[in-house]
Amino acid sequence: MKHDSSAEADNKPSFGARLTGLNKILITDIDNTLVGDNESLRKILELLEEYRSKIAWGVATGRSLDLTIEAMSEYQIPMPDILICSVGTEIYYGPDLRKDKGWEKHISHRWKPERIKEVLSDVDYLTFQEPEGQRSVKISYYLEDNADYLAEVHKRLQDKKLQCQVIYSHGQFLDILPHRASKGKAINYIKYKYEFPSSKIMVAGDSGNDEDMLKGKNNGLVVGNHSEELNILKGKPRIYFSDCEYAAGIIDGMVHYGFFPPHVMEKV
Questions:
Q1: What is the reported pLDDT for 95?
Q2: Pick from 87, 104, 81: which is nearest to 10 by CA?
Q3: CA dihedral (58, 190, 200, 246) positive or negative
Q4: What separation in angstroms does the CA of 33 have from each of 23, 74, 78, 101, 147?
Q5: Sign (positive/negative) of CA torsion 103, 193, 166, 90?
Q6: What is the mean pLDDT of residues 225-246?
Q7: What pTM was computed for the model?
Q8: Residue 87 and residue 187 in contact, taking contact as beta carbons nearer than 8 Å
Q9: What average pLDDT does the segment 202-223 reach?
Q10: CATH topology of domain 5-106+181-267
Q11: Which residue of 25, 195, 215, 267 could cross-link 56, Cys pair, CB 3.0 to 4.6 Å?
């Protein structure tokens, strides 16, 4: 993603001031990546606090902001520096959850949600997800794991020349986003805005909606309990598949990429 003035928010606003003083950042999915094993979750949270003066961190999730906060409360996860929610369509900054309006404006370019819904309205194998899963810049359905069904959705949207992207994950979730939005593109936006070099960014995930952020130029980490849909990334440069599961896999990846010293793995 090239640096685009249309994607600019306020230049290094005060609520992101902490990000300007650090040169390493971890961005991780929540479900089945950061959470899933309470012991390793507690360990990585302790390490992130210990190395807080050197490493910023954030989450990138398919969850809405409300459901993200709900999960963080449930697992007693402190507020991260960045929250990328709703499959990369929304960016917030901790601790006061200030929304990045520049990103919101950038991704709304040529977004036609009502037309997309109309084109897919008679597809009987698509079921809308619950209202809390719908956003102004994200349309979400349930779709059973069927390659022909998914191909038909793609074809219908392409035939009508609708500029959007389709993301399928966990064998059931279908998200339709603006063509400028995704977890990976949101991370790139933050990377340019706060001048993080790719070598100092690590992203961690477990499923199909993490694929585009894992395929970027940053350091990618796939946890040991990943979905089969990520097997296509094996052997790709800058993508490390850990044998460790959940948060232990993230710690392993951070040691692998030099974000944490090797000795931290002794207690994982």
A1: 87
A2: 104
A3: positive
A4: 23, 15, 16, 28, 25
A5: negative
A6: 96
A7: 0.86
A8: no
A9: 95
A10: Rossmann fold (3.40.50)
A11: 25
